[in-house]
Amino acid sequence: MSYKKSIFSLLLFSQIIMAQGEAGSLFLAINPGARANGMGEAQIGIANDAYATYYNPAGLSNLSNKHFSFMHTSYLPNLVDDMAYDFLTFAMPLKENSAIGGHFTYLNLGDQISTDDNGNELGSFSSYMYALNVSYSQKVDENSSWGVNGKYFYQELADLSNVDAATGSVAVDVGYFRHNAMNNPNLTMGAVLTNLGPGVSFGDGEEDPLPTRLGFGVGLSMLEGAGNLALDLNYEVNDQAMVTNLGFEYFLVENFALRAGFMNDPSGELSYTTLGIGARLDPVGFDVSYVMGGDLDPHSNMVRFSLSGSF
After folding, report:
1. From CA 97, how far away is CA 49, in angstroms rounded?
2. What's the domain count of the chain?
3. Would the pTM of this model clear 0.70, i.e. be above it?
4. In 3D, which of 89, 87, 96 has the Cα closest to residue 61?
């Protein structure tokens, strides 16, 4: 194990376990999907694929077909070489203008070395986190819908200072979506409140709140339907900061899209540009995205791959 990786692992665990007045369970706030990432992770006001189970469950009832997708990425490759983030999602329309869906999230933090107080190696261990989510959406009228998520998540971390390193809890999300916003047939909008639930504790007496967000997004179909512009504003309740996501997608031909986006998070002092492409050969689609951050940005050089389908 490299020195850099050891330091990062310690900081990561310390932030999650020992943070005071800041959110824990931060893996719940990792935005999935290569298409979404290519558009700067702006999806609340679009929510028109299986990733609506994460970004805005209210969009699910607008889907006309069954959708599924799987995404994989090597997480924070500039810092470590064996962290992996995987996301599997599906959505299925039902009768009476409703839909169900769900997703499974898995973050593998890789292998770490356990040492005693003198720095002697005692062996290796692995840490991981996962979340299981169930979604439901119902149309209110021709243009409006609501949605809800229920999720269970679990974290298995390092044993630091004899603190219980495993914990599980539950949370909910609620969302709203509207077509024909402001009487404009090309404009959509959405709102979502995510990760509402009790705080988590690893047995050290300190309880960390969940990464609760209040988000608002708009989507604009333009260029005779060949382009999509999206803007999200996410207020981080615990950090009292606003995260901005901006993205654009353009279809060169019907089944091939180019994407670009921008994300700015002042609370985490993060700001990066994203690029992406997408290709589809019915019923299967493939998307890839790339993060262009600064030299000190841990998200730099992250590549996401998504394989999707509808039927």
Report:
1. 16
2. 1
3. yes
4. 96
